[in-house]
Known about the structure:
The chain is of the alpha+beta class. The chain has two domains: 3-51 and 130-184, no CATH class; 57-128. The protein has five helices and ten strands, in the order H-E-E-H-E-E-E-E-E-E-E-E-H-H-H. The strands form three sheets. Strands 3-10-6-7 form a four-stranded antiparallel sheet, with no helix packed on it. A hairpin with a 3-residue loop joins strand 8 (105-107) and strand 9 (111-115). The longest helix has 20 residues, at 31-50. It is elongated, with a radius of gyration of 22 Å. Residues 195-208 have low confidence and may be disordered.
Amino acid sequence: MTYGEIQRAVLELINQYSIAGETISPAYNNQSDYIHRIPNLINQALVRIRIGPRPEAVFRHLENGDVHTDSGITVYRLPADFWALKSGGMTRMERGTLRPTNRYWLRGRREIAVPTAEDEGYYCEYYRLPALLDADIAPGDPVAEDDEVVQAAILYAAAFLVLPDDTAAYEALFQEYEDRLSLLRLPVTAEVRPVEDVYGGESAWQSA
């Protein structure tokens, strides 16, 4: 989906896209102000959705670590879109096989410390933050999010655009947004992990 399609959908929801089939000029009413505010409102919604009902996990190899040879610890810079580590999300490559590990220490949301690996290193599965829209995004630019997530964000943006002028319209749009969120919630699933990974000799390391 392109940003132009998102913008049009938001304006249509607040009846600010066309009159009698003719496209509304940005100079009409408050439309230029609405257009200016849409990217920020879409970004707010994307963050709320991705850290709330619809998290998305990604799996990446940790690279470019700062090696502390005196203590055998490597500190990796976490990816820029890192939000939270998935449960059981740290694995170490040993002899060509990925093995779960709980020997790590998260340092905020920017760094993670692990024992220095002599093999192929560590992999991290984490929940990501969304790719946010730039304020100067062009109508033809693609938006790197799932369509169902974007559709919910459109409702959120439309609701807050009309809030200062029409509380009834705001309530209707925000209720539709919340209804859409209920459809986005991921089902609860079980996660299988080896018993020794939880209760073995690695328990001295913090797993959080």
